[in-house]
Amino acid sequence: MKIIMLGAPGAGKGTQAKLIAEKYNIPHISTGDIFRANIKEGTELGKKAKTYMDKGELVPDELVVDLVVDRVAKDDAKNGYVLDGFPRTIPQAEALDAALAKLGDKVDYAIDVDVPDENIINRMSGRRACVACGGTYHIVHIPTKVEGICDACGGELILRDDDKPETVKKRLDVYHEQTQPLIDYYTEKEILKTVDGTVDMMDVFASIVNILS
Ligand code: ADP
Ligand code: AMP
To answer: Is 36 a catalytic residue?
Structure first.
């Protein structure tokens, strides 16, 4: 099962992708997590990506596409994967389709987690991310057992630099301009499924499971 998560920044793509990955035993591939890991390790890729991420802009397609194409070709992705945060532009979607077509393969589902812009700022300002494992929580909606500490690994939780309101606004503009056209792209391919992302996280997940099974 090859799944793409679509939706605005903060719509809950990562939250749902983790649940899908656990239930169906497939890898969760988040380009944002890959970039953040590279930033933490101080790699060249991380240094380049950070300059765009800090401004709320997209990292250029040429720095993202090969990375994902290589990742989905790994052994653990043979039975499927859930892509979170990729593709984010039409050229990225076309590059993914072309790479999969070469292997006689294709994306099965593009799931759009639909959340209006009004809810996004609140989601992002309350988001807390684990510096160690990338786990994501919300201070009000999805709190940890102990404040500031990741339930999964005990790591420290932080507010991401790019979750500050001024950057979030820019990211939303970028989403509408560059990523939202993917909704039409996957509608035309007849694999788009839309779920209401404003309801409780487990209700969103139930809708997704319903689509996948
Ligand atoms: P994305 O990966 O789309 O950027 P996240 O999965 O990180 O979004 O979710 C953004 C924020 O919203 C996080 O703080 C997360 O805990 C919270 N969140 C996710 N799903 C829901 C939901 N259904 N209801 C309320 N808050 C949610
Ligand atoms: P995310 O964790 O998915 O919210 O991504 C955080 C940031 O990483 C984005 O705002 C972009 O700057 C960058 N990024 C992640 N995925 C991509 C992608 N597919 N294309 C371009 N930039 C990306």
So the answer is: no
**Distance from C-alpha of 34 to C-alpha of 71, rounded to nearest angstrom:** 10
Is 10 a pocket residue for ligand 2 (Cβ < 6 Å)? Answer: no
Which one, of 5, 4, 3, 7, lies nearest residue 176 by Cα? 7
Catalytic residue among 13, 36, 50, 123: 13
107, 191 Cβ separation under 8 angstroms:
yes
Helix and strand numbers, DSSP H then E, in the chain: 9, 8
Euclidean distance between CA atoms 213 and 207, whole angstroms: 10
pTM of the shown model: 0.96
Q: Render pLDDT for 18-42 as a digit per residue (tens, 0 to 9).
A: 999 999 999 999 999 999 999 999 9
